[in-house]
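Final report, closing paragraph on structural work. Over the funding period we assembled a curated collection of sequence-structure pairs, and we close with a single example.
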Amino acid sequence: MATPPTLKTQRPVVAIVGRPNVGKSAIFNRICKRRIALVFDRPGVTRDRLIADADWEGRPFVLIDTGGLGHEDGTGLQDAVEREADLAIAAAQRVLLVVDGKEGLHVLDTEVAKRLRRAGQKVTLIINKMDPGYGGGKQGEFAKLGFGKGREVSAEHGLGFGSLMAEIGADWPEEDRVKDERTRIAVVGRPNAGKSSLVNAWVGADRTMVASLAGTTRDAVDVPADLDGEEVLFIDTAGLRQKRRVEDPLEKIMGGRTAHAIDRCHLAILAVDSVLGVGLVEKKVAGLIQRAQRPCIVAITKWDLTAQGGEKTKGATFRKEYEAALRQALFFLPDVPMVFVSSLKKSGFRELTDAVATMRKARSVRIGTGELNRVLLRATESRSTPVKGGKKLRLYYATQVEGPLPTLMGFVNHPAIMSEAYERFLSNRIREHFNLGGCPLRWRWRGRDKKSAS
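Its predicted structure, as stored:
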C-alpha cells in the first residue's frame, strides 16, 4: 500500500483561497508559469485542492489551489470542497486570499476572511482582475476584511506578480533548486470508473474527492505518496467521454487534461470498470497511452461488484475468462499487467504496487548488446524481414542507447524499408525475452552510411 508522504524538504507552502470565480486558478497557473488548473468563467470549476511544485527566481515552494468557498452548485459536494480548502490552509505558511476587484466586496469574502482569522495563518490579500485601463475604484472596500489594503494583480495579463512574489518570498530560506525525481503515475479512464476511489484506497487517505456523480474530479489532481519507500506522484484525472456525448464546453477541456496527464506521466494506470468492461472510451484512452509510449497497467476496478452476478461470476475461472476478454479488446497493448482491485474491500493493492515496481524496473533496464543481438537473430530467422521496392531489409545489429525508456539503436541497410508491423514484432520478442511486460521500447534506425537515422 502507498502512504501519505512525510515532507523531506522544508519548502514553503502557499495556499490560494477565496470565494468562487474570483480567479484563484488563473493566479495559480500564473505563479506556476504553466496551465495546470482549469480556468473557466463559471463558479465552482475547481473542486479538489491542486498541489504543484513551483519556484520563483530559483526559490522552490509548494503552491496549492482550492475550490471556491461558500458556493452551492446542487451536487452536494460543497462540504468536501471546504474540507479540502481547510486542509490546504492548515498546511500553508502563507495564504493568499483572492477577491474580485471589479465586483467589489462580497458577503462571501467576509465569510472567508473570518475562516482565515480563526485558522491564524499569515494572510496576503490579493485583489485580482485589476486589468489595464480599469479604474472602478472598488479596491478600498476590501480594507474591511482586516488584511490591509492588499496587492492589486491581473492574472489574465500577468501584472503585479513580481512585487507580490518578492513580498511573499522575502522571508523564505535560500535553498538550492531540487530536481523532482518522483515517478509520476497517471490514473486515467472513463468518468466514474473508480479512479479517485482507487487513489484514496491506495494512499490510505481521502485525498481526492469521491462521489457517485460522474465527473466529480475536474482537474488533474496531483497526489504525493510513498510507495514501498519510494516517492511517487499520483495524477488523478477527470474521466474521458465519447465526443458525441460531450456537450458542455467545460467538459471538453476536462477531457483534454487526460491526454496532458498521460504526456507528463512516467506510468499510466488505465482504470476499467469491471461492470462496464472495455468500450470505445477505454480503447481511446489506451490509444493515447500507446501513442505517448508510456508503460501501462490495467486496473479492473469495483471487482467486488462482480460477486452480485451469482456463482457464475465468482472464482478463478471467471477471473481468467474476464482477463482473456480484456486482453482481446486491448490487443494493441500487449503483455500489460492486469490487476483486479476493490477500493471498498481494499483488495488487489499489493499486486498493483508490485506491478508498478516491475514497470519502474523495466523503464530503467540495461540490455546487454550480445544477448540483445542473439534475440534479434532468432527473431529474424523465425520471420523474414520486410521487402520494399525489390530490396530486402537487412538487420546488422542493435545496441541500447540512452533514453527515458529502453531505447535501441538498430543498424540496417535501408531504414525506410522497416515497417511498423515488423518493428512491433521485434519489440514483442525483446519484451518477452527480457521480461519487460508492457513497457514500450523506442527504436532508432540507422542506415549503413550512418547518416540516415530515423
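DSSP finds eleven helices and 18 strands in the chain. The chain has three domains: 2-171, 183-363, 369-446. We thank the funder for supporting this effort.
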